[in-house]
Each structure stands twice: as structure tokens, then as C-alpha cells.
Amino acid sequence: MNTIRTVFIKEITDNFRDRRTLMTALLMGPLFGPILFAFVINLSVKQSLSNESEALDLPVIGQENAPNLVAYLQSSNINIKDGPATRKEAIDAVTNGVHDVVIVIPETFGADLAELTPATVEVITDQANTQAEREARRARRALQAYNQELAAMRLTIRGVSPLVMRPLNIDEVDVSTPSGRSAMLLGMLSYFFIFALLTGGMNLAIDATAGERERGSLEPLLCLPVKRDHLIFGKILAACLFMAISLSLSLTCFFFTLKFMPLVELGMTPNFGPLVVVTAFLLLVPFALVGASLMTMVASFTKSFKEAQTWVSVVLLAPTLPILVVSILMVRSSTALMFVPSLSQHLLLVGLIKNEPINTLHVIVSVGATLLIGAALTWICARLYRREGLLG
Amino acid sequence: MIRVDGLRKSFGEVKAVRGISFAAEDGRITGLLGPNGAGKSTTLRILYTVLKPDSGTAVIDGIDVVGDELAARSRIGTLPHGSGLYPHLTARENIAYYANLYEMPADIIDARVQTVIDQLDINDFADRRTKGFSQGQRTKVSLARSLVHEPQNILLDEPSNGLDVMATRSLRELIRQLKAAGKCVLFSSHVMQEVAALCDDIVIIAEGKVALHDSPDGIRDATGCADLEEAFVKAIHMVEPAE
């Protein structure tokens, strides 16, 4: 026990003085996720929100052919502008991105209306351009509404109730809660947190074998009258501590960034208060043992610090796999899935953000299985540390 | 007291050590001398238990290094080839880390660390982080760290590598002090002059075997060469090469 403590304290002191470790563990790892997330969310929220409330500038060719339609569009928050002179120019303008959408009203419009033949209105847009498509949708929606209004008027004139046009009344009942809707968005958070956790201990895990070997400090260390198992336990525990620090920083950082995100405007109230932060930490932190031992194991096969970094970076991606598979297959949380580390943490975190009641059995299985797998990996590391080949 | 008997070790096809036997007594300096790749480091590595012999025995103060490696390791202080320090720790912290790992009583660690710092004359840089230390400074700190628990047996693998004249002189001085204190000092080298200047006993190793084991004078007699370097060259040709 003394050996483990001595090694643990030494690794902590050593790494707190190492700028590289501090940068990755306490700055990059924790901040990368939340900042990226906040940036992306802010951008997309701003786009979808501002467009709906702002008036749409809509170039219309042939305004004189349909004064009523133009008046109707203007009343539905659309600024009618003079567009290009001809239809051909309009197509060029949309192709080149000068205009997102242009409406063309042919000269025959009035005559067609009077004769009760469907009157053509062209909406020129580039459907491959998402921004343009969003504006085109608004224009189309307005035209659709004008269409229905005209139809209803025609029926009323003929003494028929416009309701005959609506045999069905489709009514959707959305049972999602605001926190549930947030979970869709915040579901990918778990990976950011696991990423932060892993980067926190990365340098320590590499240092334990590849780093010590490269520096030449491993051989004298192994000549000491201490059990190699205890050396490796001390090192893995130190990596776990750094991972826990990194995770808690990441959670805290996200707690604050979330306050600056316009999620409420999207109808989401993320369930991410201080209590959730603490619970999330407790649910995620057992994964540190798996991460630390897995990285140490991978690093012990490599010859140099550089090579170890390459391989250990692969470990950073490993936890995404189960999360990805489950997100694609839309699997619901179940006790069996709680045996899979990283996946169980992800599912528990999503449930937590959705504000669902915590399933005690799931938590016990997740924590138990994760710690057990972590212990098994640690044991393998200890075995690897006993090899003669360790010194290279 | 170190006794090695019939030691063999192969790495795959390469037979690094092919039956080495010798003894290194307390209060004497024993030199393992041999060309590069002769099996000196492998022999030392078996002695400080990071390698296991294929056959043969190695005994330190009566303790078998294979049977009871922890007890054997507590009897030795080692300076492996190319020993490294922790660059973010000071020299003193590097030494104290080992003192803690030797599980020395907490109340004597500070005093003991200061003693070896004085002994190796490294007070000037004892409280600086070891990053950027010269080879001489690093070797001294590594030595201090391996002597902090006052081991009876001291194993040094090419300790003078990369040292300048002054550092080499102070290293020799230290080795003589250890001898005077009744320690068993075993060190490897490929430099004849160094071994000649220090050693009471010389074990010449070539091709994984002992070519000669004698005092410097004994080696001169055995080879019929007055010059030790000539004697060394003659001795290593006495071993039949590995197939």
C-alpha cells in the first residue's frame, strides 16, 4: 500500500509540473467539447430562429400579373422586391446564388384564374442549398395558403362549404417534454465528457511505460525492492485522478456554457442544474478506471512516447463505437446494455438529462460492470508489467 | 557478496550469456570487463532481477535472485545503463522518491537524502529540477538515488559513460569510499584503463563467457603481457566464439 501511495503522490506532483499534461488534461480536454458544442448550437439556433421572425425578401417577376397575390404575400410578412427582368435571368441569379428564391408569375395568370384553369406560379430555387430551401419553403407555404383561400372562396360562391375540402382533421399530440427534446440534442454530450475524461489521463498513461522507458527511468525503478504490480496500480490510480479532474472541469464548464445557449427559444429546457452535474460526475467517473488501464495497456506495447501517443489516440475513439451503434439502431436503454462501459454511461446520462427517474438497478450494473472490467484491464496491465520485454 | 554460477541467457537465437561464473567479495571492487555485446549488461540485469536466467544461479548475500527477488533487490543499489531521472522533479525529490519506495522510516528520509547529497557533492544543484542536467550531474543524482538506502552491494553498468575527466575522477573517488566502507562493488566497463585504475578483481568477459578472472597482476601473469590492454586483447581471444 505504501508503494502505491508513494508512486501515486509522485505521479501527481510530476504531472502537475508538466505543461503538456496540464494543457491536455485541464484545458484542452474539458474546454474543447463544451465550446465546440456551444458554438455549433448557437449557430444553428440563430439560423433557424431569425429566419422565421424576420421578413422574407422575395423577388417576384410579373407582379403586375397578379396584384391580389402580391398583396396577399405582403400581408404574410414577405417583402416583395423587383426581381430580374426575365425568367432566364432569374434562373441564372438563383444558380449563382445572387437570389435564394425567385417567383415568376406568367402573363397568363389572370386569364387562367378567370377561366378556372390552374394558374401556374413558378418557384425557382436551388434545393441542394439548405439556406435557399428554407426560404423557398416559406414562399411555398405562403402560396399554398393563398391557394387554399382562393379554393375556399370559389366553393363558398357556389354554395358549398369549404369544409368538404377537409375530410380529415389531422391533429398531432406531441408528448415530448422540453427536457426530453433537449436530450436529443444533448445526447451527444456524453461523448464530449468521456473524451474529456480520457484526454485527462492520456499523458500519465503513456508516461507510465513508454515515457519512463524512453527516459531510462524504468529500469532503475524496476530494480527497487517493490512489487511491479504496486508500481502500476499507483500509476493507474494517478491517471484516474487526472481523468476525474478533467471530467469535473468539463461538466462545470458545460454547466456555464449552457447558460449562454438559446435553448429555451427552441422549446428545450435542459435538465442540467448543479445536482445533475454532480450526479453525472458520479455516473461517468467509474469509466476512468477502464480508460486509464486500457491506455496503459496499449502504451505498454509501444516502443516510444510518440508511438504510444498514436496508439492511445485510437483509444480516444473506442468509446464512440457503442454509442454510435446504439444511436443508429435507436436501441432503448436496458439492463443488458448496462454491462457495456461507455454505452451504459451514455444511456444513463441521456436519461438523466431527460429528467427520467434514475433506475437504481441500471446504475448498480453500470458502475459494477465498468469497475469490474477496469479491474480486469488493470490486472492485465500488471501482468504486462512483469514481462521481461517491457524494457524493450 | 555476489556469487554467480553457470549463468546462461538467450534472446531468441542470440546466446548472450553462455555459462558465466564468478564471485565479487565484500570490501573489494570487481570489474566486469569486455567488449561491447560481450554479455556484461545481461549479467548485471540478471543480478538486479529485471531478466531471468535460462539456467544457473545468482546469489546476493546468500539470497537467490530468482527465488526471492524482492529480498535480493533490497540488498542492492543499482545504476543501470543510461539511467534516467524525472525531469519535473528536483534532484532531491528524485532521491527522496526512491527513499520512499525503499520504505525507509519517514523520519530519517530527509536526513538520509541530505547525507547522500553531501556524499556525492551535489548540493549546488540538489534543489533544481533535473531537466537540462548535464550527463555528469545526472549520473551523480542517479548514483545518490541508488545509494540512499545504504545497500551492501552496488552494481554499476558502465557508470563512466559520457562523463568528463573531473566527473570520472570523483566517481572513482566515490567507488573507493564504498570499498573502504566494506561494500561489495561490481561495475562493468569496456575501458581497460578505468578497470585497471580501480579494481581489485577483474572478470574479463567475451562472447558470453568468462575469459579470465583474476587480480590485475594475475591477469598480466596469465596472459604474459605486461601491458593490461594487451592482456585484455589476448584474453578475449581465448574464448571460442559462439556458433
Description:
Chain A has 392 residues and is mostly helical. Chain A has 2 domains: 2-39 and 178-391, no CATH class; 55-165, D-Maltodextrin-Binding Protein, domain 2 (3-Layer(aba) Sandwich), CATH 3.40.190. Chain A is 66% helix and 5% strand. Chain A has helices spanning 2-16, 19-53, 67-75, 87-95, 109-114, 130-157, 178-186, 189-215, 218-222, 228-259, 274-284, 287-300, 305-317, 320-329, 343-353, 360-385; strands spanning 56-61, 78-82, 101-104, 122-125. A 4-stranded mixed β-sheet of chain A has the order 2-1-3-4, with helices on both faces. In chain A, helix 12 (287-300) runs antiparallel to helix 13 (305-317). The relative contact order of chain A is 0.12. With 243 residues, chain B is α/β, with parallel strands linked by helices. Chain B folds into 2 domains: 1-75 and 154-243, P-loop containing nucleotide triphosphate hydrolases (Rossmann fold); 82-150, no CATH class. Chain B is built from 9 helices and 10 strands. Chain B has helices at residues 40-47, 69-74, 91-101, 106-119, 135-147, 165-180, 192-198, 216-223, 228-236; strands at residues 2-11, 14-24, 28-33, 55-60, 63-64, 76-79, 153-157, 184-189, 201-206, 209-214. In chain B, the strands form 2 sheets. A 6-stranded mixed β-sheet of chain B has the order 6-7-8-3-9-10, with helices on both faces. In chain B, helix 3 packs parallel to helix 5, helix 4 (106-119) crosses helix 5 and helix 8 crosses helix 9 (228-236). The radius of gyration of chain B is 18 Å and the shape is globular. The two termini of chain B are 33 Å apart. The interface between A and B is medium-sized, with 26 and 33 residues.
Biggest interface goes to:
A-B, 26 and 33 residues
CATH architecture call of the largest domain in chain B: 3-Layer(aba) Sandwich
Strand content of chain B: 25-35%
Widest beta sheet: strand line-up of chain A? 2-1-3-4
What's the overall geometry of chain A?
Answer: elongated
Protein structure class of chain A: mainly alpha
Describe the main β-sheet of chain A briefly.
4 strands, mixed
Strand order of the largest sheet of chain B: 6-7-8-3-9-10
The number of domains of chain B? 2
What number is the mean pLDDT of chain B?
91
- Please report the number of helical segments of chain A: 16
Poorly predicted runs of 5 or more residues of chain A: none
Helix content of chain B: 25-40%
Our Rg estimate of chain B from Cα atoms comes to 18 Å
Oligomer kind: heterodimer
| Principal-axis shape of chain B | globular
Helical residues, percent of chain A:
55-70%
